[in-house]
């Protein structure tokens, strides 16, 4: 029997995840990352539904107790299936491919174990397709999100050909020569899974073009001359581009609250009055390139000793995906390099790097407001919302050092100081340029950056996708 929801969203991470406190009570915490930021625009009413996965024991307990956000349904997928689908396939294979993170002489290795884990990924995707098929009203629109759920569009179409199905990728898309490292049947399944959608959308034209190129190269699909659609086995999937922007109203209101103002005072005291602040805020994520950022800062202190004691690198690197050994190792490496810089250059009244790893949103906003320079140097990034958020709440203007490999580069490149993320020497130079940008120039650029960054706020980003899908013939 068909369900009642007219608009459905599906993503691995839902709006809130739960933990059980010592008192046995459930505590909810809002999820982070671009997907949750964008989708929070979905209206919690009886005609819409957000389907997500239970991520851990707290979430599974919430499902058992029938606790959840209004307008959402959490799927309690078996823990071993979830682990294989989320950690082993989504985050260790698909994420690695799209961000081109493999050290290819040793990784990846696709063996029998990989096939088993891929089977779990299929099971996990099928659980979403089943739930969506059950909940969707006739002709409803379903917006499937990200690399965790690439098989869902095709699986859902088999179950419910009446639905309008969209898929949105929040990551970059790998170029064909890199994408081809996946086993052939897996690569085909990924592409054909997404092509089950009526519309496949991306954060920038660059990623949409890469997807189309993979479809042409690996499937022999036909890409239209304007690169706006792909036809495969007689079905056409439209390609869309929606560059998710920062939520100016929310950020400005939140950044003006007392807890943020208190943290500004604390941070200023800790950094030392009058010192320039080079700020970065990230998940501790391999693709964010935090270590090379630290090395570039170190290089700045070596090459231009005049900056010693006059600048502090504020690096907030919040724990992420700690079930994966490579993320734990990376986290340790970030700390090690930060400690090394502090030991090498620090003086009794100057700590060159302030590294914070405990997640505190109010403190992030405090750093955004105070930053003189924003360092956003990912190896590859679907968009990067930090680059968009900092100029919006900056108190005195911020000079943005931005990787040309971030999706945000397409919109912010003109007013940023652009770097090749692998080039530590050039990044050090870019930091110097950013630190010495004349005040008026910095203020002008910040204004333009903020305007570009808020061009497509989350609510419109969501509504635009939905409208485009619903209007599609
Ligand atoms: C990226 C992905 C999102 C993901 C987020 C946080 O932004 O595109 O799908 O939710 O990272 O990662 P996590 O593994 O903690 O959900």
From TrEMBL:
Pfam family, any one = Glyco_transf_20
Task: Fetch the Gene3D superfamilies from UniProt.
Answer: Glycogen Phosphorylase B
What is the annotated signal peptide range for this record? none
Family indicated by similarity: Belongs to the glycosyltransferase 20 family.
Its name, as the record gives it, is Trehalose-6-phosphate synthase
Provide the taxonomic classification.
Bacteria, Bacillati, Actinomycetota, Actinomycetes, Kitasatosporales
């Amino acid at each position: 029997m068909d369900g009642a929801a007219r608009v459905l969203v599906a993503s691995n991470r839902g709006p809130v995840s739960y933990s059980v406190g010592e008192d046995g009570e459930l505590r909810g915490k809002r999820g982070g990352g671009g997907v949750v930021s964008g989708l929070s625009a979905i209206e919690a009413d009886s005609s819409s539904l957000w389907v997500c996965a239970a991520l851990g024991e707290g979430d599974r307990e919430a499902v058992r107790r029938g606790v959840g956000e209004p307008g959402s349904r959490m799927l309690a997928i078996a823990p071993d299936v979830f682990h294989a689908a989320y950690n082993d396939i989504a985050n260790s294979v698909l994420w690695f491919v799209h961000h081109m993170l493999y050290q290819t002489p040793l990784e990846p290795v696709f063996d029998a174990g990989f096939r088993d884990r891929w089977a779990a990924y299929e099971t996990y995707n099928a659980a979403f397709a089943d739930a969506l098929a059950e909940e969707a009203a006739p002709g409803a629109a379903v917006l499937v999100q990200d690399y965790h759920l690439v098989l869902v569009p095709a699986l859902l179409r088999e179950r419910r050909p009446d639905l309008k199905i969209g898929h949105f990728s929040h990551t970059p898309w790998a170029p064909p020569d890199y994408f081809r490292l996946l086993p052939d049947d897996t690569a085909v399944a990924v592409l054909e899974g997404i092509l089950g959608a009526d519309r496949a959308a991306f954060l920038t034209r660059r990623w949409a073009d890469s997807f189309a190129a993979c479809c042409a190269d690996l499937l022999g699909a036909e890409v239209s001359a304007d690169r706006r659609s792909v036809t495969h086995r007689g079905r056409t999937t439209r390609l869309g581009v929606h560059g998710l922007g920062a939520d100016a109203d929310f950020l400005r209101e939140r950044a003006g609250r007392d807890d943020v103002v208190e943290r500004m005072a604390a941070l200023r005291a800790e950094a030392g009055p009058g010192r320039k602040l080079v700020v970065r805020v990230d998940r501790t994520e391999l693709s964010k390139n935090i270590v090379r950022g630290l090395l570039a800062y170190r290089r700045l202190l070596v090459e231009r000793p005049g900056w010693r004691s006059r600048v502090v690198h504020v690096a907030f690197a919040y724990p992420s995906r700690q079930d994966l050994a490579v993320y734990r190792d990376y986290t340790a490496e970030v700390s090690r390099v930060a400690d090394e810089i502090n030991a090498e250059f620090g003086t009794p009244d100057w700590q060159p790097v302030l590294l914070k790893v405990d997640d505190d949103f109010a403190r992030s906003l405090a750093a955004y407001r105070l930053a003189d320079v924003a360092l956003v140097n990912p190896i590859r990034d679907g968009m990067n919302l930090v680059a968009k958020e900092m100029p919006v709440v900056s108190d005195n203007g911020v000079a943005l050092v931005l990787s040309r490999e971030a999706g945000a580069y397409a919109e912010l490149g003109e007013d940023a100081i652009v770097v090749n993320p692998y080039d530590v020497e050039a990044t050090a130079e870019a930091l110097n340029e950013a630190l010495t940008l004349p005040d008026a120039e910095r203020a002008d650029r910040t204004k333009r950056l903020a305007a570009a960054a808020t061009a497509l706020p989350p609510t419109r980003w969501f509504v635009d996708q939905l409208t485009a899908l619903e209007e599609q013939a």
